[in-house]
Amino acid sequence: MGKIGRAERKHSGQRACSLREPFPPSTSSQSSDALGILYRAKHTLGISFLNSLCALNVHAIAAIPVTTPPMIQVFVFQFAGCEYQPPAGDQTCLGNPRLHLSQRPCPSRAHLAVARPLQQRRGLQTQAEKPAYTRTGKVSFENAEGGDEEVDVKGRPEDDRQRLNFPHHGLAARSAKLSALHARLSLPSKLPLQTLARCLIDPSVDSRQGYNNAPFAILGQELLGYYTSEYLICHYPRLPMPALYAAQYAYVGAATLASMSREWGVEVVAAPGPEVDPGLLQLKRQAAGNAMGPDNMHRLKDMAQGLRLRHTRDQWNRPGSSRTNIYGDEFGDILDQALDYEDPTSSSSSSTSQDSSSATVEAASASFVRALTGALHLHAGSSASKSFHKAHVLSRHLALHQLFSFTHPTRDLSRLCLREGFEPPVARLISETGRLSRTPVFNVGVFSGDDKLGEAAGASLNEARVRASAHALRSWYLYSPPRDDVVLPSDVEGGRTGVKWKAQMVDPGEIIT
After folding, report:
1. Which of 12, 245, 274, 367 shows a CA-CA span of 20 to 30 A to 32?
2. Rounded to an integer, what distance in angstroms lies between the CA atom of residue 411 and that of residue 36?
3. Is 172 within 8 Å of 278 (Cβ atoms)?
4. In 3D, which of 406, 351, 415, 385 has the Cα closest to residue 162?
5. Where is each RNase III domain found (predicted)?
């Protein structure tokens, strides 16, 4: 039996070798690994190793057939490269037809070569000339001959061109944030997304002319001040100048406009650059500071808004109303007369320098709202900008009676009655309670003849008399004519039909003591 078993094993080994010789080795790495495992385990697998080896070799040969891909015919227009051309290597692409067809003009684009100069003069762009933006900052246009040409973004040579520090305006049409902001504010279709993207670029990013929202912001600031002032003056003609300036700042001041920008969902970029989304507010952030104020008692941030919060004697040394009307802004602040305005036609102002100072988020947000108002006025007209102002600015509630601060209300009321020809004001006690208690309350009214001008309550007779006089002054200054008699000057501008001008009330002015 031993000899028979050894002969049988020897015969099996020879059979395995004979089975392995006719088949070429597999070229697959996976098959080679599998064969190595089977060879190492051949002493333990026995006869099953022979069947597995044969099946593995047969499977390896059958899995790698040598086939020739069929040539599939494509449409005729694909050879000319007019509408659609599959990439090289695709089974529907017979090589690269553009290599030998680039010299042949496409029939469907032959008219572009004739119409191109006229379209360039008109600033038009056809569907076939859509730009492709590359990483090098150039725009790739496909010319009429089928080739591609790269043109600089600003039309300058590549040596003179500088890298933009903000996203290119061509990316605005593909920004979801810009489209959402455009729809959220219900902006008209006349305002393109490219202009909206420019309104989000603060001058701190790039101070060059035509690269930021400064021109739009200047126009928008004047429009916001004009619409707000005419509304306040026509609805409250007796409003004194300090209260008028405070009301205008409450409506269209930097803090209010920045709050509006946050309510609209405008996000601020961490750092400007061409790779960020065009729908973000682009600005160069100002470094945080926490310096001590001039009074050595309060710490003020290094921003212009902090100047309004200083408790110094500067607020008592403000110039008169006549000087602020001429040299001041819409908030009553004196403008710096020593500013050196650049000439737009000079060579220094047309330089390509991108150096600019930093800005705060509040100032940049306010500049965006002003720029959006100016751009809306330029693209959609005065009616659209006025409707925008009414919907977003005048819709806010402002307590005007809290803007008054009288130093000597009793004296002011006496001079007012003297100027208007009224009887001298007299304070009379209307009611009282708890005179001998710790918390007495006196209700005092101020009368001019039989007419009651004001009424207030206080813990003492003198306090109630002063409060009643202040209440009478506020009632006089906050007088508003009937709404049917109020016609704003902007409502009849441009010869609008349906609105007839009515003369508005003009008050002699406030009481100066």
Report:
1. 12
2. 112
3. yes
4. 351
5. 178-266
Per-residue model confidence as pLDDT tens for the chain (513 residues) = 454 444 444 454 444 444 444 444 444 455 555 555 545 554 444 444 444 444 444 444 444 556 666 555 555 544 444 444 455 554 444 444 444 444 444 544 444 444 444 444 444 444 444 444 444 444 444 443 444 444 444 444 444 456 677 777 778 888 899 999 999 999 999 999 999 999 999 998 888 778 889 999 999 999 999 999 999 999 999 999 889 999 999 999 999 999 999 999 999 998 888 888 888 999 988 766 655 556 665 555 544 444 554 444 444 445 555 555 666 666 767 665 544 444 444 434 444 445 557 888 999 999 999 999 999 999 999 999 999 999 999 999 999 999 999 999 999 999 999 999 999 999 999 999 999 999 999 999 999 999 999 999 999 999 999 999 999 999 999 999 998 899 999 988 876 667 888 889 888 888 876
Tell me, letter by letter, the H, E, C secondary structure of 421-436: CCCCCEEEEEEEECCC
Hey, what are 414's tokens?
């006496």
